[in-house]
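Re: weekly structure request thread

Next one in the queue (550 aa):
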Amino acid sequence: MLASLSLNNVALIKKQTISFDKGFNCLLGQSGAGKSLIISALNFSLGAKADKNLIRSGENSLRVDAVFESVGKDVNDFLQDLEIDVEDELIITRTLNAEGKSSVKINGFPATAKTLKDLSLLLVDFCGQHDSVGLLNVNNHLLLLDKFAGAEVDSLKKEVEINFERLKSVEQKISSLGGNEAERERTKDILQFQINEIESADLKMGEDVELKEKLDFMSASVDIYDKISAVLSKLDGMGTSVCPQLFECKNELNSISNFQDIEQCRQRLEDAYYDMKDVSEVLETIRDKAEYDPKEMERIDARLDLIKGLQRKYGTTVEAVLNHFEKAKAQLDELENSEFLLEKFLKEKTAVQKDLDDSCQKLSDKRKEKAIVLEKGLMKQLDDLQMKGTFFKVEFEKVPYSKKGFDAVKFMFSANKGQDIKDLHKTASGGELSRLLLAFKNVMLEKESVQTVVFDEIDAGISGETAGKLAEKLYNISEFVQIICITHTAVVAGKANNFLFVEKKLTDETTTSTVRQLDDDEIVQEIARLIDGGKDVSSTAIEHAKKLLA
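Done, posted below.
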């Protein structure tokens, strides 16, 4: 549950920590005092869109810290997947600066807005005047029914999903065989042509690189021969050539090599002589290979053209072409046995289809069974909320298979006895939708995973006996989960066990909102003010307030 909410520089609130209790927490205060601001701050802390207008005037940033205690298993499992430890408290911190940049920390660990949004779904459920529009979206109806149905339907849905994936898998196997017989024969002809074309080329790994180097060498052979010949002449020819002169220099030093460093110089001249002789021999070998052969060049060029043609068709490298060759052989071999495999897969598909039909039917039957319970429960709740004669129906339609089965669900509604039942979004008014949402919350009590539910003026437009019944429903919910409720209705406020008063104070320089917990006398005064509707309250209103609280 939400233990506290700390606000820093949030609109009219400079700095405030608000504590919440278990059960029914009621936010009281005049319109415009800042009650909805507290809900907005909580919403922001749980991943709502960051709005720079929330930053207090004159400040550069805001910060909201939401502290939760006794979080459930779902939250703990979620955080363990993120490697975030939760001991006694879960602390969510979110900041926003004037440039619109937001940051999130969960128990001190940085987190993304997406992670925070996912976590928030396990912590708090927001139910305002406009949240009942979710009931109007027919895409939510199956989700709501399945949530109400609980574990039994969840188990059957998993069975359907497994069978649906099995069916997709066997259909892909059948498709991989090339469709019908004529299509398979065409595919076999194409594969055989590709295999023959690559096989006849007799490719070798790295052959294209080797041939390219050889062609480049032959293309430059004349230039290579002339240049190497010139170098050899200078190294080992007659006259002023390097190697003979090095040899003569080395010999001149032989007779005086015993003096000082002369032997070292003589040895270096000898090493240089043999190095130059080795270079000469290598260059002679290269020169001897540098023969210009037009026919060989033509053969290499044609071979490279063949390889490039194969690479354009089957891959950018010789390795890719050879890989395609192996795959084509494997696919052709599979197609050669396609009649046997097709018969096998078709039998498998028939068996899997039956399994899917059976599991979808079981799921549909269980949904219809639970739908009757939901219908009765909702109509009982709506009857309690002074909507007597209301008729609610879950309508089923069979649709193509999916992971969710073959059911499409639509909520049908009639607010008055004798009135035709119609789609919920076509017939329910705003006040009826608010009560319907509250009825849903009551029938879903045991299915809720969240521990905190926020009701933002859900009693708007409701009065008299209906307001009393609505208050009872809210109190009933507070027996199971923590409620935070903004209300202007005395009978609703009378059901609370923790009262927080929001007030706005004006000075010469600024406007500030503050939140404080009311003592017993103040609680009576504020509920009496809701009854009288004025600044001064009558003794009658005070007595009435005491009765409501009693």
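The longest helix spans residues 338-384. The CA atoms of residues 78 and 119 lie 7 Å apart.
Next request, please.
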